[in-house]
Amino acid sequence: MTATSVGALLLCRADPETVRPVAHLLRERMLLVPAGDGWSVLVPEGKPWRRDGHGAGGGVESGGADGGGEPVDRVVGGWATALAVGSTWPVLALWWDGDRSGYTLASGFRRPVGYIWLADGTPAAEDEAMRTSAVRLGLDPVLDVQALEALTRADPDTDADARLRGLLAVLTRAGVALPPGLTPGESADRLRSVAGAHPEAEQIEWGGWRDAVRVELDAVESGSLGPWMVGPRARAVAAAQVATGLPLTLWGARRRSGGWITAGLVLLVQGLLGLAYNRFRGAGGASGGPGR
Q1: Which residues of 72-104 are buried (b: 16+ CB within 10 A; e: fewer)?
Q2: Which of the residues 26, 52, 113, 133 has the least number of beta carbons within 10 Å of its own beta carbon?
């Protein structure tokens, strides 16, 4: 397979206004597009993975912070973790590379879960991961779980990309509505072209830490992040983010993992910003208190 058969989408259970400031901290060029009621999708503009013809897992290289070879699922899994670990909403990374397809679900500080199908649709993961995903996404415990469990059973007529489309069909009942053309199995170039043509597409581009902090402060002032950034509980959360972010960044650096480095930096920036905001912008007088 070639790099044109590799692609990924990041589904976020939050509106674009809420996703925007956190997405800037990924330090990646992406397009942000609405994806239904209370959902957004991030489409990578670059391809921080490329193929050298040696098959899945061995020939995918990442152009991210670690500079080493990483398969597409590890790259987007790191992004999903970085987005979700400092947020109150889950992130579902969908990925495919011609040999396999799957997803990674990140939600707060919980350990990410995911599922993989081989190219012909053969399940290659534990069924429990699908049920855990349903719980974390707040899906119907009966109807939706039954539909998801069907994706874990052998079906010679359903390939890996069709499995991901089946997953998206279940998520439509939770409000997901991807724009036409953003479909599992499409190339990264095609996904970028479709997302760029969307009338509400926004460019996410790294402009340095100063701009990233400014974007997040603007979000706070606009009210999209403000309610949970003021008060005793918010200060405790911010302190926990700093305490977790520093060792996570160092751990990621030792492992040369760009995704985990980014996750640690996101936590550090959000924690420091939260502490500063409480110190200088009304920690003592806000009636909103701790927020949610």
Answers
A1: bbbbbbbbbbbbbbbbebbbbbbbbbbbbbbbb
A2: 52
Q: To which residue do tokens 């208190």 refer?
A: 289
Q: Any idea where the domains of the chain sit in the sequence?
A: 3-202, 221-280
Distance CA(156)–CA(218), nearest Å, equals: 51
* CA 141 to chain CA centroid, nearest Å: 23
The encoded tokens of residue 191 equal 């996904």
Q: List the one residue out of 162, 31, 237 whose CA is nearest residue 12.
A: 31
Predicted confidence pLDDT, tens digits, the chain (292 residues):
344 478 999 999 999 999 988 888 788 899 999 999 999 999 998 777 654 433 333 333 333 333 345 789 988 998 998 888 767 899 999 999 989 999 999 998 788 999 999 999 999 998 899 999 999 999 999 999 999 999 999 999 999 999 999 999 999 999 999 999 999 999 999 999 999 999 999 999 876 656 656 665 565 555 545 444 556 666 777 777 788 777 777 777 776 666 667 777 777 777 777 777 667 655 444 444 444 3
User: Cα 17–20–26 angle (5° rounding)?
Assistant: 165
Give the residue carrying structure tokens 């050298």.
52
DSSP 279: H
The DSSP secondary structure of 28-40, one letter per residue, reads S-EEEEE-BTT-E
Contact between 252 and 85 (Cβ < 8 Å):
no
Residues 6+ apart with CB under 8 A from 39: 11, 12, 13, 14, 15, 175, 176, 177
